[in-house]
Amino acid sequence: MDRQAVVNRHILLVDDDALLRRSLAFNLQQAGFRTSVAANAEDALAMARQDPPDLVILDIGLPGMDGLDALRHFQEHIGMPVIFLTAHRREFDQVLGLEMGADDYITKPFDLDVLLAHVKAVLRRSQSSPVSPPESAPLVVGDLTVDPTAHTVTLGGEQIDLPPREFDLLYALALEAGHVISADDLLARVWGAEYDGEPQVVYVHIRWLREKLEQDPHHPTRIITVRGVGYKLEPQGT
Known about the structure:
The radius of gyration is 18 Å and the shape is elongated. It has helices spanning about 5, 20-30, 40-50, 65-80, 90-100, 110-125, 165-175, 185-190, 200-215; strands at about 10-15, 35-40, 55-60, 80-85, 105, 140, 145, 150-155, 160, 225, 230-235. The model has no long low-confidence stretch (mean pLDDT about 80). It is α/β, with parallel strands linked by helices. It folds into two domains: about 5-125, Rossmann fold, CATH 3.40.50; about 140-235, Winged helix-like DNA-binding domain superfamily/Winged helix DNA-binding domain (Arc Repressor Mutant, subunit A), CATH 1.10.10.10.
């Protein structure tokens, strides 16, 4: 993604550190992005509803509503990719961020060139639809219907709201319902080459899908793990 390609791409930066906000906003603008800033999640959500960004850079340790709660709101009510910023280096925080559905994760302090590379990679992934063609018939797997054109999921006639990445993962499974797909294949189809070698991304998103689609997520009957091989989607309710 060259400079011409990023022109007019809108980034919303949310951080309570005023110096970091000014510095990072300036550098993002110099790189060609249109940039908005907010000091807290509440203001950021209001701004995003008025002027939806293409990407949110979100500090995890915000005052008031923290970054994890804010991520839920961005995903459920607005729908856009999110990169987390955090001052913590613990692996726990990284796994937690992935479980919550963040698209990427940067630890402070960070090199500006590294951050820009992550921003451009996430924007590229969000622009492309690796598994969902623009004109495709709905996929019906038992009582589950996945419609890639309307970007909707219904389970037993009831609509289920899924963030974009979970939708793409479910669609990839539904395309080959009844067949096992390896975690590496799912990673390549849904997340792309930048996530090669990070199968934990698939594991945590499978867990979140099960929370929404299974009657008992701890004993799944719809999204099945085939140990040592991968995952498959089985029809239910037929």
